[in-house]
Amino acid sequence: MREAVEKKVLSENDRLAAALREKFRERGILCVNLISSPGSGKTTLLERTLASLPRGNAVAVLTGDIQTDNDAQRLVRYGFPVRQITTGGTCHLDARMIERGLTELGFNGPGLLFIENVGNLVCPASYDLGEAAKIVLLSVAEGEDKPLKYPGIFHRASLMVLTKTDLLPHVDFKPAVARENARRVHPDVEILELSCRTGAGLDSWLAWLDAMQRKFQAETAAAAR
Amino acid sequence: MHEIGIASEILEAVAAEARRRPEAVISAVGVKIGELSNIDRDALDFAFTALTRDTPLQDLRLEIEWCPRRQSCPRCGESFAAENYAFTCPACGEERTNCIGGNELDIAYWEVEEPCAKP
User: pTM of the predicted model, to two decimals?
Assistant: First the structure.
């Protein structure tokens, strides 16, 4: 006899993620989840971001990798709390790892929490981490057709950041085509272009983060009333 | 790529149900997998078979329903399966349509055989 179930396969992760989202809201923590292929420049973008934020700001980073704490070592130099999550083979971060990492980090907010996911355009898209926004990075050293090949993440990301634009004179990557492909998958996706090497476009990225924080604060204040 | 993890979650749900109802035999589990869920059907099948082999669940069948991306038209209300990123409404030509399906990663049903009640 067939019995209807209607249960999410990842319901346990979704339950933990919902609890995290509620915790972030209560504590006034804007959490963003950075996702890209390996080598698109997630850690470098975070380094440039941390370097441009005043030390007094409440900012923390959870960074995920399959092995090594190389990224945490790079990021901890900027004076903000950083915690490496080493997944030991798992190709994505899940909500339980974030819950544990947040406790170890001792970050109570309010402020900004960056999650740097494991380099992978596939699996991280399926796991809700309680974040306010997923951000997908695509470097101009990759192909313009990545949004069409990996629609899951480009569909779920609020923002696409084209990185390493200083390489444009040396590669065949056409930003207009990448933008068009991203909009085919996700018509409302926001798009920024930047180079961490030259600093071009970093101001728009920081402005985007600032606008997100203001919007988040306004929403949490409204919900508290 | 994470199909092993997904298969484990499905099996955990079935095992929990089996513990809850020790008298019943769950013979199949049906899942809905959306095009945007990043799941490879063959890899999921493979993972499921590998994880159930030589376990009490080795006879459990996995039935996969593949769900294409679906769009809904805000102008005329038409809903349609969108193939190859063609999101324009086939009924009225509206270009801005909304995604309403394709994210599925759901356990839809199980097939349960209850032992016959004794006369």
Answer: 0.89
